[in-house]
């Protein structure tokens, strides 16, 4: 007890002591007493206490303490050297290790200005006191880390050159110049100071300090290099260094340290040298000087030697950045950056990028500029200015709309009523009386597996059951048995997504048992495949294409294929081909030349199309019909006039029966790929540089040599412009720009053949424009193997290893970059090993879905639905620029009877308006739409209830021309159609003009849709999510609280996304955003909300990559999941109906049970935070930049708060009845 009391008394004594000493010091300052001895004594005592006890430091800098002010006041007033030294030592103790907070306090109390003034004063002494200068500069170096204005203060006070002169006069005094160099480094972070110091010879001075390898003075060497690196961020200083040949000197010093530092103890010095080189090469002169002294070869060799030691990665990474930056900018090997295809527009836009392209003289070289290497762009400099603290302002996005008058929806027709009457013909359901229909019952008809689904090969596009992977599958061919119904000839009984039951399973099991697998049926015979290679088809007069002739053709074709065996001649195939493809000549792409490679397969096969073998996919509408697809392709109009068909589109495909996880990125893959690119410059003799495919030179013949891959993209939706063989197994691929455009390179779809097994082929798509991609975060391209399809595995699979996306050495011209020079392209690189020799494979950015596929699916849907149950109508909304029809669908339930009340209920159903595929490269939107259409055309009770609740108006493909011609973003007008909704031109944007016209007509007749949703794909985010429109949330993000506090807004726009987050496994509520941006004011979502007045106006974005939450977390997305999302959207609308009309919507409990089974309501897992790539994804070698122009809705930090912001309606976790009560109140 006595011991504790003694400690307590001692502590009290010390606290009282420091307070007493500070009081004495304050009195000396206040009375301006010249008591030198007293001041020395007091400051020495304070110094002793601060050196011996940490708590004294805390007390002096505690909140409310005046200790710092007293010390600084004494320092400012005293003229005694010893007192000054004591105080400086006290301050050194306060800002020692762990004193970051105390350093900030010292800076905030004006310590920087006092120390700088003291430096100016004592510099007048001759010679200045060394101890004083060391302490002063040590303190200033510490304060400089916290005081952003120290550079400006030093320049104004005149202290800038004082420190520089001390270094010049004391080069041999390491103790003195070390803190001086640290201060110069701090000063140089200000660009004005760096230039001023450079003029006074500081760059040359630094090169007197740094030098070759030495174990002495390594600390000084490190500080000198850091100071030099800071100075060289100034372009003026960088030019000075180039003029004096310092690039070569730095490289020589670096190599010397690299060779002698065998134990890697001085990595920081080596990195400092590289940092200096990096800053010099930010200017064009520096890059040229670096190349002239073989800098590429030097850094390449040294970095390769460092790869074995993981701790040297910072050296490898910095070297890689320097080499990439200094790699000479090359032009793309193209005659023009404009598309290889030309389409003459009926009207030339007055302004915009298309107008600029048309105004260019023909002799202009638009591939590259004379000066394509701009000093002012894409450097890694981080120069600060005199207003650094202004940078740390609150986040503000200037793109957010802040004008409330523009945000408030204003229902404006925009067109006269007389003009809108042209759309009456698209709404016959509003005037139909159904008196001529025999409406007996609305009871769903049972699913029949015996109903014909079409004559030819049937390969559905999605299925719940897994296919056997070790057997080939023979596809049934059945004759059509149309229903005998007037006006509905050739329509079989209704087909739908039916719930599995035991009887169905038994029947399917029985069918599965009847599968006949022939011992010789692994693949097509070698000779047969060669005979099928490039079937050339004859032209037949169009008027001969009657139904009877087609029936004869089908019969003959079936017989011919049935008769073909391994040893038969090939004349049957020839004749069949001529009969099959009548009309415009169409070719199938090159089929694999060996159906069974003798080295891989020991058995050959024959194909018997007469075998009745059913695929085990009972849950799907089997919508694929190869022969129907060919017929549709012949009527599809493309700019290049395609005459070939890609096999995946002809055969169809299934989802693979296995999960495809998001690819884990191997460590160091990007720098390895970059190193291989740099080898092209260092070892040019190893580069083949041979063109093997070129759309710009269609007559170009590829040498028929073994080992060279063959490419093709001349089919619907194909995109590949040119291929250059770089090395034996490496190819550079160049994508075609959108027609009437000079950019938007992202979508690719092409064919590869002539491969060998056991070889890793590297593909580089070298003219991408986005600054980053999901290829850096686990996404893989897709591949379809014809050989696998013939062997019973007809599916697209995710393939590729060593995948990364990075900036390359090809430069965009100012025309392509919107006036900016030196903008680089980006490379998607991936490596593939093919499973079969001489196969034919297709690669795609995402699962292809062509216009012809859509038209085939719609025709199959129309021929298989139950007309007594479903009201289905297909119209042509308009013709596109190239003359293709834009389909418009109407789907609802037939009225229960033709009684008046049932007809009234039919006509008064609210509308749902859906659209998709305005951007051709977002093929996932079409797969989601396919899921929606199949659900709506199903005959299960919930689908029927949904149809009875709404009338669906659907435009499944808003941009047919873009899809057909392989565009990524634009239509044939060269414009993004989703930026034309405000003022669409009927001549240039007919689909948008008339789709908007439909909505304007509904508004005019007071039948606004309950929901409008435009299906899209997103290339830079994961999951499925929605963008909506909200005034209050938009204003909330702008912090305009005064303006937004008076706003009242119906929160029902959040209901549908919330429902989907609870029912759809891939949907993520926290990624949704309801902010309205200025840049999106002409999109469908905003225009339909603002002008048409639809409160629930959405864009639904589906990932191109995969999911990071919920049931599919860690998996890449496939067609099954996308189609499921389309079905879940429908079930969400059914729940929305129950929530918005609870009093009139009474369903039997049993129906709710079925609905819950279908939507799997247990999958409610959502991401706890907004998914933003910048924060959630790992960092890689190159700093990720998401600021470049995006082809998607933005994924900036706005969505961070959008997901977390919950207005008064807290729907999460509420039951349907609770949410209903909330809405009603």
Automatic annotation (TrEMBL):
This is Cytosolic carboxypeptidase 1. The active site is at 1101 (proton donor/acceptor). It is found in: Cytoplasm, Cytosol; Mitochondrion; Nucleus. Gene3D superfamilies: 2.60.40.3120, Leucine-rich Repeat Variant, Zn peptidases. Residues 847-1137 form the Peptidase M14 domain. It comes from the Eukaryota. Belongs to the peptidase M14 family. Its cofactor is Zn(2+). GO terms for biological process: proteolysis. It comes from Eublepharis macularius (Leopard gecko). Coiled coil: none annotated. Its EC number is 3.4.17.24. Residues 1186-1225 are annotated as: Disordered. Keywords: Carboxypeptidase, Cytoplasm, Hydrolase, Metal-binding, Metalloprotease, Mitochondrion, Nucleus, Protease, Zinc. The lineage of its organism: Eukaryota, Metazoa, Chordata, Craniata, Vertebrata. CDD domains: M14_Nna1. It catalyses: (L-glutamyl)(n+1)-gamma-L-glutamyl-L-glutamyl-[protein] + H2O = (L-glutamyl)(n)-gamma-L-glutamyl-L-glutamyl-[protein] + L-glutamate; C-terminal L-alpha-aminoacyl-L-glutamyl-L-glutamyl-[tubulin] + H2O = C-terminal L-alpha-aminoacyl-L-glutamyl-[tubulin] + L-glutamate. Residues 1186-1196 have a biased composition (Acidic residues). InterPro entries: ARM-like (IPR011989), ARM-type_fold (IPR016024), CBPC1/4 (IPR033852), Cytosolic_carboxypeptidase (IPR050821), Pepdidase_M14_N (IPR040626), Peptidase_M14 (IPR000834).
């Amino acid at each position: 007890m006595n011991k504790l009391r003694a400690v307590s008394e001692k502590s009290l004594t010390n606290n009282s002591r420091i307070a007493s000493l500070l009081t004495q010091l304050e009195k000396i300052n206040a009375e301006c007493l010249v008591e030198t001895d007293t001041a020395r004594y007091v400051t020495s005592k304070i110094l002793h206490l601060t050196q011996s006890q940490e708590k004294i430091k805390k007390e002096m800098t505690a909140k409310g303490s005046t200790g710092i002010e007293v010390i600084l006041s004494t320092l400012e007033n005293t003229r005694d050297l010893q007192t000054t030294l004591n105080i400086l030592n006290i301050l050194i103790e306060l800002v020692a290790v762990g004193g970051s907070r105390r350093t900030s306090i010292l800076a905030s109390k004006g310590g920087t200005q006092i120390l700088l003034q003291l430096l100016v004063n004592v510099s007048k002494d001759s010679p200045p006191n060394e101890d004083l200068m060391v302490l002063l500069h040590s303190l200033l170096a510490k304060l400089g880390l916290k005081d952003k204005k120290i550079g400006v203060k030093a320049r104004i006070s005149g202290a800038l050159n004082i420190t520089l002169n001390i270094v010049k006069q004391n080069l041999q005094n390491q103790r003195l110049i070390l803190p001086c160099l640290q201060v110069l480094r701090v000063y140089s972070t200000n660009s004005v100071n760096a230039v001023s110091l450079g003029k006074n010879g500081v760059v040359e001075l630094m090169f007197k300090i740094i030098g070759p390898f030495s174990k002495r003075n390594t600390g000084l060497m490190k500080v000198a290099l850091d100071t030099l690196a800071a100075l060289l961020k100034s372009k003026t200083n960088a030019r000075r260094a180039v003029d004096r040949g310092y690039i070569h000197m730095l490289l020589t010093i670096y190599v010397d340290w690299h060779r002698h530092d065998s134990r890697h103890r001085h990595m920081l010095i080596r990195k400092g040298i590289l940092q200096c080189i990096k800053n010099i090469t930010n200017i064009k002169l520096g890059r040229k000087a670096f190349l002239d002294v073989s800098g590429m070869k030097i850094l390449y060799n040294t970095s390769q030697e460092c790869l074995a030691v993981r701790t040297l990665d910072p050296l490898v990474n910095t070297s890689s950045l320097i080499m990439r930056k200094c790699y000479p900018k090359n032009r793309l090997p193209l005659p023009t950056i404009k598309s290889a295809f030309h389409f003459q527009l009926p009207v030339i836009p007055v302004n915009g990028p298309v107008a600029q392209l048309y105004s260019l003289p023909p002799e202009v070289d638009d591939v590259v500029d004379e000066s394509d290497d701009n000093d002012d762009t894409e450097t890694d400099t981080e120069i600060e200015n005199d207003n650094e603290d202004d940078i740390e302002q609150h986040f503000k996005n200037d793109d957010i709309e802040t004008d409330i008058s523009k945000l408030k929806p204003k229902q404006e027709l925009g067109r006269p009523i007389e003009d809108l009457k042209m759309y009456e013909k698209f709404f016959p359901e509003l005037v139909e009386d159904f008196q001529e229909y025999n409406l007996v019952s609305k009871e769903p008809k049972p699913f029949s597996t015996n109903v014909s689904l079409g004559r030819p090969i049937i390969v559905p596009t999605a299925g719940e059951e897994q296919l056997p992977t070790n057997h080939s599958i023979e596809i049934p061919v059945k004759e059509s048995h149309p229903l005998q119904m007037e006006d509905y000839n050739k329509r079989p009984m209704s087909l739908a997504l039916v719930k599995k039951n035991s009887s169905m399973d038994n029947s399917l099991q029985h069918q599965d048992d009847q599968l006949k697998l022939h011992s010789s049926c692994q693949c097509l015979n070698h000779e047969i495949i060669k005979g099928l290679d490039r079937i050339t088809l004859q032209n037949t007069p169009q008027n001969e294409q009657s139904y009877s002739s087609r029936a004869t053709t089908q019969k003959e074709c079936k017989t011919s294929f049935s008769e073909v065996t391994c040893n038969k001649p090939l004349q049957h195939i020839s004749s069949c081909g001529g009969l099959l493809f009548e009309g415009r000549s169409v070719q199938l792409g090159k089929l694999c030349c060996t159906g069974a490679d003798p080295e891989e397969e020991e058995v050959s096969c024959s194909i018997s199309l007469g075998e009745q073998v059913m695929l085990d996919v009972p849950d799907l509408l089997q919508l694929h019909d190869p022969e129907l697809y060919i017929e549709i392709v012949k009527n599809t109009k493309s700019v290049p006039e395609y005459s070939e068909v890609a096999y995946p589109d002809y055969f169809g495909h299934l989802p693979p029966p296995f999960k495809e996880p998001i690819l884990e990125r191997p460590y160091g893959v990007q720098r390895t790929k970059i190193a291989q690119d740099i080898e092209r410059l260092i070892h040019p003799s190893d580069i083949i540089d041979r063109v093997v495919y070129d759309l710009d030179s269609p007559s170009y013949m590829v040498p028929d040599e073994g080992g060279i891959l063959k490419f093709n993209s001349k089919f619907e939706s194909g995109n590949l412009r040119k291929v250059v063989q770089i090395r034996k197994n490496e190819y550079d691929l160049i994508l075609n720009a959108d027609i009437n455009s000079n950019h938007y390179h992202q979508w690719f779809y092409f064919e590869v053949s002539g491969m060998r097994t056991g070889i890793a082929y590297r593909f580089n798509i070298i003219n991408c424009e986005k600054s980053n991609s999901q290829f850096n975060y686990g996404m893989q391209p897709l591949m379809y193997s014809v050989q696998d399809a013939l062997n019973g595995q007809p599916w697209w699979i995710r393939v590729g290893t060593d995948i990364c996306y990075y900036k390359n050495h090809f430069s965009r011209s100012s025309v392509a970059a919107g006036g900016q020079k030196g903008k680089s392209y980006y490379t998607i690189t991936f490596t593939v090993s093919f499973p079969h020799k001489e196969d034919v494979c297709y690669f795609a950015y995402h699962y292809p879905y062509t216009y012809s596929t859509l038209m085939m699916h719609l025709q199959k849907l129309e021929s298989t639905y139950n007309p007594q149950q479903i009201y289905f109508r297909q119209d042509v909304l308009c013709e596109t620029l190239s003359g293709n029809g834009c389909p418009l669908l109407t789907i609802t339930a037939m009225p229960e009877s033709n009684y008046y009340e049932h007809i009234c209920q039919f006509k008064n159903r609210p509308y749902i308006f859906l659209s998709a595929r305005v951007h051709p490269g977002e093929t996932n939107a079409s797969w989601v739409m396919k899921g929606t259409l199949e659900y709506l055309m199903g005959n299960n009770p919930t689908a029927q209830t949904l149809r009875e609740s709404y009338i669906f108006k659907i435009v499944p493909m808003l941009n047919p021309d873009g899809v057909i011609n392989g565009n990524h973003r634009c239509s044939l007008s060269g414009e993004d159609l989703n930026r034309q909704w405000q003022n669409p031109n009927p001549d240039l944007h007919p689909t948008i003009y008339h789709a908007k016209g439909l909505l304007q007509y509904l508004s005019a007749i007071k039948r606004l849709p309950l929901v409008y949703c435009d299906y899209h794909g997103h290339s830079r985010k994961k999951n499925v999510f929605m963008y909506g429109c909200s005034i209050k949330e938009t204003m909330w993000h702008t912090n305009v609280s005064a303006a937004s506090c008076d706003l009242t807004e119906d929160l029902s726009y959040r209901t549908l996304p919330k429902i989907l987050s609870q029912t759809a496994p891939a949907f993520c509520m926290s990624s949704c955003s309801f902010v309205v941006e200025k840049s999106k004011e002409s999109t469908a979502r905003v225009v339909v909300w603002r002008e048409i007045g639809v409160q629930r106006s959405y864009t639904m974005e589906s990932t191109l990559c995969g999911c990071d939450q919920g049931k599919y977390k860690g998996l890449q997305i496939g067609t099954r999941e996308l189609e499921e999302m389309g079905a879940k959207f429908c079930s969400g609308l059914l729940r929305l109906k129950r929530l918005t009309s609870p009093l009139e919507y009474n369903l039997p409990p049993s129906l709710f049970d079925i609905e819950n089974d279908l939507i799997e309501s247990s999958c409610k897992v959502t991401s706890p935070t907004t998914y933003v790539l910048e924060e959630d994804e790992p960092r890689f070698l190159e700093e990720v930049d998401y600021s470049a122009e995006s082809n998607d809705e933005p994924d900036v930090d706005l969505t961070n708060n959008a997901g977390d912001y919950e207005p008064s309606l807290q729907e999460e976790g509420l039951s349907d009845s609770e949410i209903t009560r909330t809405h009603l109140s």
